[in-house]
Amino acid sequence: MPPRRHKWLDRFLREGSAVHDFMHPDRIVVGAEDRAAAARVASLYLGVAAPFIVTDPASAETIKYAANAFLATKISFVNAIAAVCEAVGADVADVVLGIGSDKRIGHDFLKPGPGWGGSCFPKDSRALVRIAEDGGYDFDLLRGVISVNDQQRARILDKITRACGGSLEGATIAVWGLTFKARTDDLRDSPALAIVDELCQRGALVRAFDPTVKAELRGMEICLDAYETCEGADVVAVLTEWDDFRWIDPDRVADLVSSRQVVDARNLLERAAWQRAGFTYQGVGR
Q1: Distance (Å, rounded) from C-alpha 4 to C-alpha 148?
Q2: Residues catalogued as catalytic
Q3: Range of the domain at 41
Q4: 215: Cβ contacts below 8 Å, ≥ 6 apart
């Protein structure tokens, strides 16, 4: 990484909880070649109960890239473990409870799903691979993390295809959630949108609902609520973990769909309740 002449300040804010993160940061990182300038920046955060790390600009930037790449790695890891769970008949929820209880690992970012997206993980992971490459190091581990993430989107698509009987041509798919994560309106590099794009390319009609999306998108039909998406649907697919979807009445949905198939890519729904309503339920790692 080339040397920088400017200061670098990072507060590590997450979409959907940025205000809380700003007021209660885990750490504040400042990269500066001028220690006096770094001290002046530090004075702006007097009273904030968080470690204040002062380093050079290249190290500060690397901290940011490495943090996001590591979190992306945790998500790809748990998605890979979910695939193993499906292969051996294990339940990923129990596996995550077991490994997350190890304080060296923790529970954060160990939730299987359709893969990571958004504005930071994709670009920072690829940037770190490129930075390493420019420096003469082949970051094969991180390349694998990115590959697993791409594979996970394909795995969810395969689940939906199987639920349709092996072909998406002419199928109607009810999609719940389009943003890359709940509690944000961000559609950038959303795994949900990537899956929807592929569904449409394979001949499916997609009827979607997301609490933050009102305008038409990419050839799909945007509905006013989650129930409306289900009218005549062959498969219901949960792609974003909005809490609203937890409380949907499966019996009411059963009366609307043409086929009782649900693919829960976020393991959000109460599996037993949907099965009692007559649905064939597919989760991730279950």
Answers
A1: 33
A2: 120
A3: 6-55
A4: 222
